[in-house]
Amino acid sequence: MKTEISPLETTRAEAFDLWMTSPMPMVTLTKTFNVSKLLKASKRTGIKFNTLLCWCIGKAASNIKEFYLLPEKDKLFHFDSLAINVIVNNSKGGINSCDIAFSNDIQQFAKEYNITTAQAATQCKSSFLEDSMIIGTSAMIETELDSIVNQYTDKFCNPMLMWGKYRRHWIKTTLPISFQFHHVQMDGGHAASYLERLQKVINGL
């Protein structure tokens, strides 16, 4: 459910006052992750690497209260559920966007991921979950990327994680991930803590 709330009743009141009218309120942090266990888990379970990474992104965010807040225009909203947005290459050579509801059950999430992305690819239609807080993702696995800075539009203030192709080394596999977020939603410290938590979730697979 999506509910409008008063910024004054949250810990983001000062940030709302400072950053809501900023022409560029988005911040981007980039961290290089050790994804060795993610790759091993993908091979062990048969679940695709990007599917597992999207689940880890949702899992790491699920216990952080700032992820359930979203500024839109001059208002602040609270959500009671999370979903992961995925960009899909469709059968016509274009792209579509689809939202997958986050579930603590990794098998259930993987099932929904496969069904939703397959439909988007074949039907060339986007699908959205309007009542869930959306965490955007974008995987550009054609090449290795050091960092990604996304364009800003007030039509999409949601947090977004982006990455390229993972890198194999002798003893580990790494992947730089860029995390963009709205400064009203969270501060840099919150974002840094989230990235640390994401690494711990990956390590726990």
Q: State the order of secondary-structure elements, H for helix, E for strand.
A: EHEHHEEEEHEEEEH
Count of extended strands: 10
Contiguous helical run count: 5
The parts where pLDDT drops under 50 for at least 5 residues are none
Apparent shape: globular
How much of the sequence lies in strands comes to: 25-35%
Q: What is the residue-mean pLDDT, rounded to a whole number?
A: 96
Q: Work out the radius of gyration.
A: 17 Å
- How would you classify the quaternary structure? single chain
Backbone structural class: alpha+beta
Describe this structure in words.
- The chain is α+β, with helices and mostly antiparallel strands and 205 residues long.
- It contains 5 helices and 10 strands.
- A hairpin with a 2-residue loop joins strand 3 and strand 4.
- Helix 3 packs across helix 5.
- The chain is globular, with a radius of gyration of 17 Å.
- The two termini are 30 Å apart.
- The mean pLDDT is 96.
